[in-house]
UniProtKB/TrEMBL annotation:
Protein name: E3 ubiquitin-protein ligase RNF170
Membrane protein topology class: Multi-pass membrane protein
UniProtKB keywords: Membrane, Metal-binding, Transmembrane, Transmembrane helix, Zinc, Zinc-finger
Upper taxonomic lineage: Eukaryota, Metazoa, Spiralia, Lophotrochozoa, Platyhelminthes
Spans annotated as Disordered: 44-71
Domain RING-type: 81-124
Positions of transmembrane segments: 12-30, 195-213, 225-247
Bias (Polar residues) ranges: 62-71
Keyword 4Fe-4S: no
Species of origin: Echinococcus multilocularis (Fox tapeworm)
Pfam families referenced in this protein's UniProt entry, alphabetically: DUF1232 (PF06803), zf-C3HC4 (PF00097)
Protein's cellular compartments: Endomembrane system
């Protein structure tokens, strides 16, 4: 008895297993894209370095009202910097979706050897790029000099490390962050991109959209049924990876 009419059972099983794998991956990707980052906790291997950064920052801010009241816990709220345990200020976001104050991250980065690619103090993932996540409060009332300094350091970091070779698995892991960045740039006006890049993305999106709705597929739905969505999922995945690669290049060019 044939599982799918007109196909051998071995081919049908391959299609079924491939569809399940692709579906699980896409669901996981969508959940990571939509859900906020988990509450960060400093990795034990980074705890000593982070404590040194906290002490140095506390020594510079003893005259402030909160300088002596910072909690000693390693756990911070989602809107707090995991290093200084205070509200995020001119925040930067890493490829592993953790956010830090721009000044805190720079102080942490400076404790690594020159040209050494740092690891995230929260999860120890290798850091490949930084994104600016300034709030409206930062832009309206923040110190322009501090903002300029953070932007300059982010540019230096991306210019130094974003162009390094990236494995396929790392490209897939970076998709949630880079696709959210793409959304903000395209539809929320967070940062400027060239008209040529915007046009290229629109053309690619239209191509993928019409391919998905077109009856002309590698695995036609009329023959293999629901498993005909497999090639559509693969085309979408390739599209997402390509878009992420474009914006990774945009980070380097913007630096």
């Amino acid at each position: 008895m044939e599982i799918i009419s007109g196909l051998e059972n071995s081919i049908s099983l391959v299609l079924i297993l491939s569809s399940i794998i692709v579906a699980v991956f896409l669901v996981s990707l969508i959940r990571r894209f939509m859900s906020p980052s988990e509450i960060p906790q400093i990795h034990p291997e980074s705890e000593q370095t982070v404590n040194e950064v906290r002490q140095s920052r506390a020594a510079r801010s003893r005259c402030t009202s909160n300088g002596d009241s910072a909690p000693s816990s390693n756990i911070a709220e989602v809107d707090d910097c995991p290093i200084c345990l205070e509200d995020l200020k001119f925040a930067v976001e890493t490829n592993c979706r953790h956010r830090f104050c721009g000044e805190c991250f720079y102080a942490y980065w400076q404790r690594f050897p020159p040209l050494s690619q740092p690891n995230c103090p929260v999860c120890r993932s290798q850091l490949r790029f930084l994104l600016k996540r300034f709030t409206p409060t930062d832009l309206d009332t923040g110190d322009p000099a501090e903002r300029s300094e953070v932007e300059s350091r982010v540019a230096i970091f991306n210019r130094r490390f974003s162009g390094n070779p990236v494995s396929l698995m790392d490209q897939i892991r970076d998709l949630p962050v880079l696709l959210r960045y793409c959304w903000r740039v395209m539809f929320e006006g967070e940062a400027g991109i060239s008209c040529l890049l915007r046009l290229r993305l629109i053309v690619l999106f239209l191509f993928v959209f019409f391919y998905v709705i077109s009856p002309l597929d590698i695995f036609p739905e009329s023959i293999v049924g629901v498993f005909g969505l497999l090639d559509d999922c693969l085309v979408c995945l390739v599209f997402f990876i390509y878009v992420a690669a474009l914006f990774r290049g945009h980070l380097i060019a913007d630096a």
